[in-house]
Amino acid sequence: MERQAAKERIAKLAKLINHHRYLYHVLDRQEISDQALDSLKKELFDLETAHPDLVLPDSPSQRVEGKPQEKFEKLTHSSPMLSLNDAFSESDMADWQERIGRLLSDADRVRIDFYCEPKLDGLAIELIYEDGILVAGATRGDGRVGENVTSNLKTIEAIPLRLRAAEDIAADLRAAGLEDMASAVVRGGWRRLAVRGEVVVTRRDFDAINASQRKKGLPEFANPRNLAAGSIRQLDPKIAASRRLDSNCYKLATDLGQKTHEEEHKFLEIAGFKTNNKFSRFCANMQEVFAFYRHWRDHRGRLPYEIDGIVVAVNQNDLFEKLGIAGKSPRAAIAYKFPLKQAATIVEDIVVQVGRTGALTPVAILRPVKVGGVMISRATLHNEDEIRRLGVKIGDTVIVGRAGDVIPGIIAALAELRTGAETAFKMPEICPMCGGKTEKKPGEAVLRCINQDCFAVQKRSLQHFVSRGAFNIDGLGEKIIEQLIDQGLVRGPVDIFGLKEGDLAPLARFGEKSARNLVESVNAKKTIGLPQFIYALGIRNAGEQTARALAEKFGNIENIQKALPEDLQAVADIGPVVAGSIRRWFADRKNTAVIEGLLSAGVKILPHRKAAGALAGKTFVITGTLEKMSRQAAKDAVRAAAGNVSETVSRNADYLVAGANPGSKLEKARQSGVEIIGEEDFLKMISNKR
């Protein structure tokens, strides 16, 4: 990026980040997600690193938090409470290790090891003890001065009002091999002790409090961190006491002769503070750090509270001090964040794709950005109404997320970062693929190409027809289907079953063997189950679950063809819109001709018999990453056991199967009272061992 453009971008980013940090840290309000804000901060950090002369005095990178509120008296910290820079990948961590290594001698460099712990998503605090008694507690504030919230902190049972007796602490320190720290305690070196930690709320308590808020008709808290911060900043300690707050401590800010960060953690536990020691780990090298990160990335649901990554610190305190401070962050520690569920990026273009039903869908072409561990470069904008709702323009900075941790979508456009060069997008009046007419039917938001011979419609329809949930024909990928249409060999589904080896000779890279394999693959799939056949037809609004429900109700294709709208609406989860769509499809002579053609070509549709299985009548939602099978395999297993699969969480669901990184469906399941099970329990169920 050119210097002038970087300067302008830095100024806009700094202003926007400061705004959201003020809302979040001072007013306890949140307008964008933590992940989206982290993404903006990372972009600012990278730009400032590339252009250090452009760093502004009020840049978010040069401060820690917003100013303390006036409703509490101010308290100066024993030493500055610093913030951590973020890393999002193994390469970021490798760069960090290289940077700190360059600042140390060869002898010091070989001494580097690490202490890692879960990064709590709570409110940072400092606790001051005199002669073992809690005398003061403060929020982080601006890093130098915080808000005196001692009365509220005293309501948290996890925070000791009085520490254990000095002689008991010293004895346990000696038993742990910490002789120097034991001697310091005996000598009275801890008469004034500063400890740092986090106020947190467990997921269970967070859900219970929000349930209470809903019952009272009050607004819900956005997340546990928001609840913790709002509770600690209440003037009435009784409110804080009612909020089920918890605390974990992780930093001894007083010098008691501790040589490592690990020793600090041991002291805190011995002294009587609640810690995360059992979830933390000494790591001898970066490979062990990566293993620790992967463990908590995949198993963070086992913790009672939310974490958004791990903290990695150089374990040796003398090296920590040598490395010093850069801006307002220690060089020797870093927050290794989990994959962002949301991130900021640029809309570089908006294009239109044509689907199998003729639907024209605008798609944002994005500057590639990693979201949830996946690089995202495209995001659907659904339709013109959605573009208008979001206010998205080409060139906009936008927040991107993944619905259900799968489908990329634009959450918001950040108009504050516009330069004036952005351009509005307008849907085309003709089909961009065939030049045919388009129309938008009353009551629909979707613009469609009405040319039945449109190449894009043909291609997408055939791709759907041969897909896994339909005829599942191996070897018929997108490129092959394009070639078949281009050569005039295939115009519709029936033509697929008429292909001969000799027909495939004109196709690029098709030899005798590959032609024979494809024909054999097609012929092997002439027998198909009724649910798969219905799904393959591509009836609008009739997905896999609807197809299965129709098969369960009617048993064969003939009964479905004859079914009246009222018969269709008697099927679970089929309403008037879906029933009307199904009825119109079968009333169209062109469509019934396709079924007749397939039967004439030798396709055999197996009548559907209601299966008896271990999961009969049960509905499952599957989310996150499973270790022993894919999500599709899990869905197939449910259906094989006569169960139902739903893509959305509702009170009609019986179970949510939660893998690693389950996303928003987990929270919705908790709110809806849906039973949540892990992969092991699920495997027992499908094997009928539960």
Structure description:
The chain is of the alpha+beta class. It has 5 domains: 3-62, Helix hairpin bin (Helix Hairpins, Orthogonal Bundle), CATH 1.10.287; 74-337, DNA ligase/mRNA capping enzyme (D-amino Acid Aminotransferase, Chain A, domain 1, 2-Layer Sandwich); 342-439, Nucleic acid-binding proteins (OB fold (Dihydrolipoamide Acetyltransferase, E2P), Beta Barrel); 470-606, 5' to 3' exonuclease, C-terminal subdomain (DNA polymerase, domain 1, Orthogonal Bundle); 619-686, Rossmann fold. The two termini are 59 Å apart.
Keywords summarizing the entry:
single chain; 690 residues; alpha+beta; Helix Hairpins; D-amino Acid Aminotransferase, Chain A, domain 1; OB fold (Dihydrolipoamide Acetyltransferase, E2P); 5 domains; seven-stranded antiparallel sheet; five-stranded mixed sheet; 27 helices; 38% helix; 20% strand
Per-chain topology:
Blueprint: H1 3-25, H2 34-50, E1 74-76, E2 86-87, H3 90-102, H4 106-109, E3 114-120, E4 123-130, E5 133-139, E6 145-147, H5 150-153, H6 166-175, H7 179-186, E7 192-200, H8 203-215, H9 224-232, H10 237-242, E8 246-252, H11 261-271, E9 281-283, H12 286-299, E10 307-314, H13 317-323, E11 325-326, E12 329-330, E13 333-337, E14 342-354, E15 359-371, E16 374-380, H14 384-390, E17 397-403, E18 407-413, E19 438-439, E20 447-449, H15 455-465, H16 478-486, H17 493-496, H18 512-523, E21 527-529, H19 530-536, H20 544-554, H21 557-562, H22 565-569, H23 576-587, H24 589-600, E22 604-606, E23 619-623, H25 631-640, E24 644-645, E25 655-658, H26 664-672, E26 675-677, H27 679-686
